[in-house]
Amino acid sequence: MDATPLCPECDAEVEIPADAMENELLACAECGSELEIMSLQPLALELAPEVEEDWGE
Amino acid sequence: MRVALLVTHIRAEEKLLLAAFNKRGISPDILLDRELNFELSRGGEQLAPSGIAWRDYDLVFERCVSTSRGMYALAILNCWGLRTFNTYKTAAVCGDKLRTSIALTRHGIPQPHTRVAFTPQSAMQAIEDVAYPAVLKPVLGSWGRLLARVHNRDSAEAILEHRQTLGDYNHHIYYVQEYVDKPGRDIRAFVIGSRTVAAIYRASNHWITNTARGGQATNCPITPELDAICVKAAQAVGGGILAIDLLEDARGDFVVNEINHTMEFRNSSKPTGVDIAQEVIDFVIGQIGVLA
Q1: What is the mean pLDDT of chain B?
Q2: Among partner residues A36, A53, A57, which is closest to B262 by beta-carbon distance?
Q3: Which CATH number does the domain B185-261 belong to among 3.30.1490.20, 2.60.120.200, 3.30.470.20, 3.90.640.10?
Q4: Fewer Cβ close by (within 10 Å): the C or N end of chain B?
């Protein structure tokens, strides 16, 4: 895996779990933003989409 | 055996399900709902985003967090004859609280007293018929969003005006329920096929007890009474892999509150000691007749 990526919202380093998957959601420990792993090779993070009204269980 | 896991993105539940598939020697293709582009008339011959023809999947397991994307995808795939979990029939009922209530009513399953109205004026009457405190819920939605406990006429007028003015047409369907004075907790039970495999209490000081809203999960024993009402409720909405939310009323009797067809369970395996993901996947594999 690449070097530690930065949060696109606050620029903090984001720790990526060893078992991370593409399109997995994770939270930035620094600012709490929800992020989506868009790619593992190379590592790329984006802000996750905003929750929509029909999202849920 | 070829399986597709249809998702909006990967959450804790999807990772658990993928691990459970892997334990049985199956590696599902992950399909993103954002990449779907169906040509309706071509059926299962056309390629999924994975590059594999839809008809070549033995199963599509729908786990979209977007209820509408998941439901319409299931509608199309079931129309083409593909096997899915859950089915469109089940998703369409569970994705709509009013349709769920209708199904429960038809099958004689206890639920909170419920009324439906279509204008603010008739909704006000419905609220007063139910009596204060009443609960207003959007018919579509999840995670306890936009629920309102209405204590008096002033609050009712304000909420109805906001919904009528700010909400889209979905919010103009006024689904009103009695407030069940539950004992600081509700119950979530996981039904897989014809079995209640696990259940949790969700305790909270807030009247909304969803774990997404901070409710604390502990194990709930599966009594014969709890199992019976849960299995019956699951069958009423079409069956499959479902989370049944129940309340205990003042007499301690169960009433079914909601049913979820793409259930979240990340906080439920630990307190119950049940590997819910593996239970789900073993059921799914069994249903398609291929035990790996």
Answers
A1: 95
A2: A57
A3: 3.30.470.20
A4: C
